[in-house]
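Hello,

I think I submitted the adenosine-5'-diphosphate job twice by accident. Can you confirm which output corresponds to this input? Input:
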Amino acid sequence: MRIGAPDQSPAGIAPAVTAFLKTPRMLIGGQSVDGEAGSFEVFDPANGQVLARVPEASEADVDRAVRAAAAAMQGPWGTMPGAARTGLMLKLADLIEEHGEELAQIETLENGKSIMMSRLIEVLSSAEYIRYMAGWATKIRGETLDVSIAIPPGTRYTAFTRKEPVGVVAAITPWNFPLNMAVWKIAPALAAGCTVVLKPAEETPLTALRLAELVREAGFPDGVVNVVTGGGAVGAALVAHPGVNKITFTGSTDTGIKIGTRAMQDVKPVTLELGGKAPMVMFDDMDLGLLGPATGIGIFLNTGQTCCAGARLFIQRGIYDEAVSVLKGIVSSLPIGPGMDPGNQINPLVSARHQAHVQAAIARGIDDGATPLLDLVAPESGYFVAPQLFEGAAPHCALMQEEVFGPVATITPFDTEDDVIAMANDVRYGLGASLWSRDINRLMRLLPRVQAGTVWINSHNIPDQNMPFGGFKQSGLGREHGSGALDNFLETKSVCVAYS
Ligand code: ADP
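Support: Only one job matched these inputs. Its output is below.
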């Protein structure tokens, strides 16, 4: 079913969605399978009802998936030319679009997010992402190298590098952009010629399982993409499996530290895209007309469940009162409700557990002395939390330091550039940040001082496949996207040729 217009309410749940939700299965070695460890429930965050039962993988299932991925490296995939991989990936992107409405509805049902976001980001931007990465499959290249080796005397040498797929990739993804994150991992891995075992988050495994069906339909050889579902223990079994050659993870910093530590025990390459506590720094000379997108996209996109969410606003004293008043008005006007209505900009959080986490962070902020500015009411059924802005949060309180990952931001006034840079950088994270000003000299002067993998100017929270993405400090290791994305999945082999 073709995707609906982004701002159109679905007429109802598509029949293909209802059919899929009855028996979602994992994909191992080209076979659609149940989980040896049984199954678990996935909930609809809009109403707290059970949406589907999903297979729970056992350690043996994980083992079979890794073996299937390793076997596929030895099969036709291992020698397939880049252009053929491109062709399969483009087919997959087309299938994602063909089934776009179905995928968007599944995403909104399992995650709670706006159907508009599901259509635009989870589906359309995922298809574009695959197409972008598909292009790199034919552009893998090494270097020829002049070398100065002088032994034995008289022998001559030349050298070159080959880029070779690292092998079996374990991809572990979070629940905030489930289909998009799966694609961010799978697409560059496939372009590089690797095979993949994907473990999506237990809250939102359904679009990954539907993606697995489309992978089969696209004609990828068996075992090239495998999807196993379950909780953190399934992810941990995958990370520790000796057949895995590379780990790529997006999720919380705490889990990332565990995964990175385990990876180092086996000296396995690992890419980590972790948490954030992004500052949005607004100067007196900014265009106040930008406060709308700054709020809707910068802070509250995906109901604040983005790792780059502008959770800490710093506003210069000269515009402080006016900006705070405008912000309060904007946030108070954001419609709250289920994601199936595209008019709702604040949707339920992903799970009851996460709802409790965000509510606890708000309560703790008040206990720690911060002042809540809003008194909004969220619907009672479903995992809703009303948006909140705080003033007066102490620099080292939990609200300023720890990721809330919900519709919550702090606002702090500042006077000088030095003051605000010190405050902006005063967290363990360094994923995203933004500077808002009309003064190009100021912006260029401050850019090198901001500790973040991405700095947006007069905008915030907008990634692109061509823009490297990753974190400074405890926000991660390595960069995804862009021309270097495939390097995460390639080994470099130096070849040294002697001749006389
Ligand atoms: P959150 O705490 O917000 O749910 P996590 O970072 O723990 O986020 O989860 C992101 C992904 O990591 C999920 O797919 C989850 O199942 C997985 N995961 C959790 N713990 C582990 C672990 N110890 N090893 C591997 N994967 C894990």
